[in-house]
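Structure, all two chains, one model.
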Amino acid sequence: MNDKILIVEDNQVNLDIFTEILEDDFDLKIALDGQQALDIIENYMPDLVLLDVMMPAMNGYEVCERIRGNSKLKDITVIMVSARAMESERKKGLESGADEYITKPFDEEVLMTMVKSYLNQKTG
Amino acid sequence: MRKQQRSTNLLLLGFGLIGTFFIIFASGWIYTLYDSQNRLQHILYKKEEKMLVNELKHILHKRNMAVLRMIIRKDEFDRDDERIHMRSLGAEFIRIREKLISEYFNESEKKQWKNVGQSAGKGANIYYKLSDLLADDKAVALLFDDLVKAQGDSAYELNKLTMMVDEEVTKDLAEAKEINIFFSYLSGILLVLSIISGFIIIYYVVIKLRHSEKALVEYGQKIRELYNISSESGVDNREQISHMLVACCQLFNMDNVLVVKMDSNNSHKNVLYEFGKKNKLSEYAREEIKSTLCDFSLYINDVIAIPYFSKSELFQDNCKLRKSVNSSISIPLRVNNNLYGILCFLKKETHTGKFSSEDCDLVKLVSSWMGYSIEREIYNKKQKLLKEKAESANVAKSEFLGNMSHELRTPMHAILSYSGFGVKRFSTATDDKKLGYFTRIHKSAETLLSLLNNILDLSKLEANKMEYNLKENNINEIILEVIDEFSAMAHDNQIAFECNLEEPIYQLRFDAERIKQVIRNLVSNAIKFSKKETVVVIQGENDGVLFVFSIIDQGIGIPESELIDVFEKFKQSSKTKTEAGGTGLGLAICRQIIQAHQGKIWVENNPAGGVKINFTIPVEVESNEYKQVS
């Protein structure tokens, strides 16, 4: 059984990119905004969340904090993915509870390696 | 100043009196000296005269003796000796007589001398007869009796003459003595008066000097205290001003101080600073001071010191005010050489005595210092504002750069990712997939280009170099074209459009590309910020004067406080800033374009949720208002 990845992203182009890279190796679920992600995550219980930062209504930082605040969800690996490349934003992402923060554009193989590494750590 | 002048006048009067006394004294003394000298000389003169008269008496006596001896002597040779002796005595008598007559005798003495001369002449005749009648003893005896009588008469007359001389000398002496006594007393009195005046003046001068010294020392202390306050460092400017006002209130022994600021028309006044030692002024008193005293102070344009309100024409009838204030000292306040307001020190009771010139000078000094302090405060405020603006601009710039980076990275990410997919999966991907990759690359490149164009537009906006191509165009066609462009995006976001466009009766002149850019931006925002499964309503109306465009979404809305700011460069709604990115340029560019068309653009919140953005374009546009391409 494949590992489950929840992709939280409001931009369709970016969603398609994630799907293109990951769909062959993982079970993917999509959430188009933060609230939808929180609605899905408890039932879906993904192994890893790829979380965009800049989203309407609820941004990625808040989503991450809520995930970490939930005892059932706090151990889920969260990788923040954002086009915001400033060091302060990376720091903010990690402080909100993300396990990793990567910036767009990212290399396909780098993403894949990172995802597999975190999932292996979890299972291993 | 008047007090100083009065003191000077008093001093001058005092010295004048002393001078007058001394002049009178000196004049009297000189006159006395002169008169005494004259009298003394007269006395000496008369003494010489007396001596000569006595000499005459002596000569007469010697002649008498000579006559007696001549009578007694029997020898003729002896008698001849006596005759010779008598002749020489006679000659001496004549000599002295002539001297007295010519040099000494006054009229009355000359008259008296006639008597002497007559009696002396009688004696002389008798002498001559005696010398002829020596043999006749009886005749001699008779003649001798006559001689003695005549000599007696001469002596009597000579004595009288002597007495006259003596009387005159005595009279001279008495007169001299009287005059001396008079002038001595007078001089003594004048001297005493002068000394007393001198002492009084010295006392007065010393007292005045001591007062002046004391006032100077006090003044110096006040200045020092004010200086200490004014040179406090590390203290907030307003606090320093407050300290200064409090200190001045105490120095002037006043109860309240007001700093009243005028507006630029010098009509409306506001109290900038107020301090009360015991209590603040009543509202009535404050308003009265602001109106009456401040207006008067501005009119006079100098220090106004009123120690007694009850005696001032301004306030003597204002009993209500005099319950709170009864004395004041005020001065106009200048900042940067412009009239700024008024500084007033007020007291409930009347002031003890009048305000001194030092008090007025001190008020001027305080006013001058206050002017500088307020100037500094205004400058500091301006600097703070500029700093805040600069910081805000910096923050906005940082935010803009952050957003720019995000906006550039997003399409770049798509371009790089899909091109990477194309490269890696070229041999395995289907044609549809490959087409999809290229399509996405193309679209993202277009987005990137659009972003870069926005940046370019921004630079033109800032340099005021945007050019417009004004022509008559059909606005509805433009609107529909944009809607068509965004139909796919709307569909993807599950947004529907509702168009309510009036048929164009009046042609509009506008730059089609720029207005399209505006509508594109507004439609894009509406879709971006609308909730899914909602409707975006687009309206267009033309009443012959204005064309009004409206776009209404049911999105996240904009806070009321930001409805105007969202049109500023680099500004975004706080709701959209953190959530959906964007550069903060779109609406700023829209506003610039609409304003260039002499229109207006504004946003209002939709009561049903979301916003309604409107813009207007006048039907008749003055072409010379624009930079036209053709």
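Chain A has a mean pLDDT of 92.
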